[in-house]
Specification:
The chain has 389 residues and is mainly beta. The chain has 2 domains: 48 residues, no CATH class; 327 residues, Neuraminidase (6 Propeller), CATH 2.120.10. It is built from 4 helices and 25 strands. The strands form 6 sheets. It has a 5-stranded mixed sheet with strand order 8-9-10-11-25, with no helix packed on it. Strands 3-2-1-24 form a 4-stranded antiparallel sheet, with no helix packed on it. Helix 2 crosses helix 3. The longest helix is centred in the N-terminal third of the chain and has 9 residues. The chain is globular. The N and C termini lie far apart (60 Å).
């Protein structure tokens, strides 16, 4: 009887090259040889596949389901006709501990998961099916952030940002180094002056980039009525990126954005396979313009941009007047962007092409995913690593 292991090598390679990431578990249980091979190399179309991980809310928002999503933007468009269809293959993902996750972030094929038990966090490699629990002090969902990165020697670390009014600037920074299993306070300064000014975060090439938006308000003369000051509109809005460099364990200077932004307008961050940073600017309260920019160069101390797309949203078919992008990705070959807004995906092209596609599930947190062979020192929830100071 011929088994999988008896197949010709060329045929075996062809089969493995066609396996979607969402079918890894079934593949590994099919053949012991393939299971071993998949732990040392990225197999299937994982190196080329556009894959995301999403937290999908239950009907009454009481809990969230973790789902993998593979995207396939189908269709051919000519100048005058043709259409795109967004095919999304959604598959629920099971974590061995069956925990309840309420927030995820991603770096280098690893996911940092915040769970209901706010005294621990979970690092997870879905490709290798490995998890690592890390103990931390109790934290607030609303006023804390955890981001994952690595230094030039590929040592992985976690940065924790906490609102703490006893600290200078009202923020406290701590770092966890995987090779020391210890949380330490970082005595660093940054141009993030208030917790509420941090609006979005994304990891890229081992470092973390924060979108910061802070307001400077005009001041009335002393003789003017104080009640008038309360409703005064901001006369200046600072918007910029900050990079936390995991090699130097410090923040870099302000990085400029390729546009100005006013109060009420939104900016969403994304990435192209952890190689380029993406910015989506949505001026729905003022200019009604939607812009997407791609980084040419991205470093802790420098950035340059190229415009990928710019459209007037008033000219798009069925595009909402008030629009806040939850997440987005681009198809560089087809020159279109897919922007998610709650239950609807908007496919947008610079030539004015627009199509809205509704889905039965949503709203959720979405992040791009590229498989990784990073090994984790696995443990169980009862074997939490991490000591405070």
């Amino acid at each position: 009887m011929t088994t999988m292991s008896d197949l010709p090598e060329t045929l075996e390679d062809e089969i493995l090259s066609r396996i979607p990431i969402t079918s890894l578990r079934s593949m590994r249980s099919t053949c012991k040889k393939w299971n071993t091979f998949s732990k040392t190399q990225i197999i299937g179309n994982g190196a080329k596949q556009s894959l995301g991980l999403m937290l999908r809310a239950s009907r009454h928002y009481r809990d969230f389901h973790l789902c993998s999503m593979s995207f396939n933007l189908q269709g051919i468009r000519n100048e005058d006709d043709g259409d795109y269809v967004l095919k999304i293959d959604t598959k629920q993902v099971s974590i061995p501990e069956h925990i309840r996750i309420y927030k995820i972030s991603h770096c280098d094929g690893l996911f940092l998961c915040l769970v209901e038990d706010k005294s621990s966090i979970l690092v997870w490699n879905p490709y290798l099916a490995q998890t690592r629990w890390i103990k931390t002090k109790q934290y607030s969902r609303r006023f804390s952030a955890f981001v994952l990165g690595y230094d030039n020697n590929y040592n992985h670390k976690i940065l924790k940002i906490l609102e703490d009014h006893d600290c200078v600037g009202g923020l406290r920074y701590e770092i966890y180094r995987f090779n020391s299993i210890l949380w330490e306070v970082l005595n660093v300064t940054s141009e993030l002056y208030e917790w509420s000014n941090m609006h979005d975060v994304v990891s890229l090439k081992g470092n973390t980039y924060l979108f910061v938006k802070g307001n400077t308000y005009g001041w009335a003369d002393e003789d003017e009525d104080e009640d008038e000051d309360e409703d005064e509109d901001p006369i200046e809005t600072d918007v910029y990126l900050l990079c936390f460099d995991f090699t130097t364990e410090s923040f870099g200077p302000r990085l400029p954005l390729p546009f100005s932004s006013d109060v009420g307008e939104s900016v969403t961050l994304s990435s192209v396979r952890e190689e380029q940073l993406l910015l989506l600017y949505n001026g729905w309260e003022t200019s009604k313009m939607l812009e997407i920019w791609v980084s040419n160069k991205i470093e802790p101390n420098a950035v340059s941009w190229t415009k990928f797309l710019k459209v007037d949203t008033t000219q798009l078919t069925d595009f909402p007047d008030e629009f806040d992008a939850v997440s987005f990705f681009i198809d560089e070959e087809k020159k279109v962007a897919v922007v998610f807004n709650r239950y609807i995906a908007h496919i947008i092209g610079e030539d004015g092409y627009s199509k809205s596609q509704a889905f039965s599930y949503g709203p959720g947190l979405f992040c791009s995913y590229v498989p990784s062979l990073v090994q984790l020192h696995t443990n169980s929830p009862g074997e939490n690593e991490g000591r405070d100071y």
